[in-house]
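Internal ticket #5521
Category: modeling
Description: The requester needs a full-assembly model to guide mutagenesis choices. All entity lines are attached below as received. Residue total reported by intake: 770.
Assigned to: D.W.
Attached entities:
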Amino acid sequence: MHTRMLVAGASALAILAAPHARAASDADLEAIRAQIQSLRQDYDARIHALEERLKAAEKEAAQAKAQAAQAAAVPAPVAQAAPAPAPTPTTATRGLAAFNPAISAILNGTYANLSRDPNQWHMAGFLEGGESGPGRRGFSLGESELGFQANVDPLFSGNLIFSITPEDTVSVEEAYGIYKPGIAGMVPKFGRFFSGLGYLNEQHNHVWDFTDAPLVYQALLGGQYQTNGMQLTWVAPIDQFLELGAEIGNSDSYPGNDRNRNGAGSGVLFARVGGDVGDSNSWQAGVSYLHSGARSRESAVADLFGNDATASFTGHSDLWNANFVWKWAPHGDPHYRNFKLQGEYMWRKEDGDLAYFSPSIALASEASYSSRQSGAYLQAIYQFMPLWRVGLRYDWLDAGSVDYGANSAFLADPSFHPRRATAMIDWTPSEFSRVRVQFGQAKLAPNFTDNELFVQYILSLGAHGAHIF
Amino acid sequence: MRPIFRFIVLAWLAAACGAAHAAFNIFATVPEWGALAQELGGDKVRVYTATSPLQDPHHVQAKPSLIARARTADLVVATGAELEVGWLPLVLQQAGNDKVQPGAPGYFEATSAVALLGKPTRLDRGEGDVHPQGDPHIQGDPRNIAKVAAALEQRLEQLDASNASYYKARYEQFSARWTAAIAKWAQEAAPLEGTHVVVQHKGFTYLEGWLGLVEVAALEPKPGMEPTTSHLAQVLSILQHDPARMVLVAAYQSPQASEWLAQRTKIHVVSLPFTVGGTDGAKDLFAFYEDTVQRLLKGAA
């Protein structure tokens, strides 16, 4: 009604304001009346239309109100009525920082109580290299990690992980790019990365179920095998999981070393299959092969006279690995209870020459060398209630047949099987923290038995990437 | 070594090019999106659901079977809002299927169609397992399903254009049935409005918003943390001056803590399906809400 009165008033004003109205003739008045009439009709029509629209709008509003009242009789209403998803403005407003890579840090520390001097720790019959041994006695920082990860552009993503050792050295553990669109379904990775060899090798040590690496990894791969090079993996486009992978690289990590040559010094091939059995079980099995070479790869050994000596190997190294993992969780939900059984077997042959050097008696000798050595581990982890897990592991090594050639005058074929049994219990209050106590007994040589106790914490800060199966 | 590698690369190329897929493969991360994709796609699609309804959707492993299915998928339907952050990025990266990488049309996030509730005001891991972008459990409210359905149907039309009219027709049919069902559930659940409830895990925000339930406490001291005795004692004292009718537990969770509470107060433990298949009654998308409403009504009685 207000609208109608307003418009009527406006028309009256218009008439009064018309400049020639007062002095007009009858004819003019008629014309004006006609004009007013038509104006009025015009306005009436418009007002009517406006009224209709107003009524419709009022009806809509009432409906909306009723709906809102129905939906919102609770303290958490408003967003429901929002027509479009609320944009998250935070990232847009952070300027340059918006493109910062995801940063993660792993704090990993141990307390170790070792019954034998870790400097005397040797696996009898093996020419060790890389990282082996139980680490330092007492409190130490373990291996902390710092990682950066981001998409570089639509084509590449990058990953950089530093490892910070208790000795205050920083090393590049992994630094690789991935070409994301792939090549015909193959995923290319390049740079430095943990090889897809075996099962445990690709995982960072803070993800391991035990504080230290299995003996077979320490003896035959020097801890963990890194590739400086490139990798292609391909998953078969079928419902059954089948993954094939190939790597070429510099041969600079144990059992190879830097040979100062062009081309690919080492290669890895691997294949994995896997699947589910029912809702509650899943498994994966794989085989892999590593070919590498070394030139004057030095290992510390004890010779037949009981003196410390060095043995430098030059030649080729071929390693085969077979691995499997079986996981059980009721209905696939590991939260309350779960079980994991995992094992790997490795066999390595090395052929070439060995240079023996004893500083104490100033003697050097070079002869042919050939070895066939193997080892395996089997471990089981059981989470019996939320947050708590227990685990057992058994390691064994076979120093196998070692042919020292003419060097057998200085070095003995020990025909000993180093072995170790380990038990652990850990507490995982959240997926970002874990505290572990581990006890192991290692018989590494006929007269060397080490009792090893570890207390370890692992804290994960910042971005927390997904873990591989 | 070299000839071996060359041979393998060539063999892969041949196999990859020769692989043909007949049906339109959909990889759904959780059962509700699997069920919705099946409703919309009918017999033109082959749906694989990555997780079981009795699995905590926050803790899923990047299993080999998931990688294989992601490899052959034409469309990945995920919840988004970081619900799958612990496994999906890795599965997609390992699968190497560029059709379904985040950003590609073959990657769909349900939360992109819905306004999220419960965006944390304090972003700190000290607050437990918080979801920085807001609560991802949008399946609590069937009106969200309607929004996701509309967006998902668009995506299906875009990706599988030859069956566009089929998807459209199925969507319209679904949409009409869904609207009618929502009205029916709202009517049935009317007595629940204003009912005070306790939740075990903060995963029912949208359900509470839809039915007008009032959450007075949560049994988990922080999201994702197991209930502790000291926190349960605190909940008991809250309930003394603000009594609740029922405690809601998702089917994938152990009801132990809720039962402990029920023994000490006059409170009903109501186990809700949480997703399609979570209970025997919740066999499809419609039955999921029907069962949820019925269980709530029974618990409130």
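Resolution: model delivered.
Comment from assignee: The CA atoms of residues 99 and 284 of chain B lie 28 Å apart.
Ticket closed.
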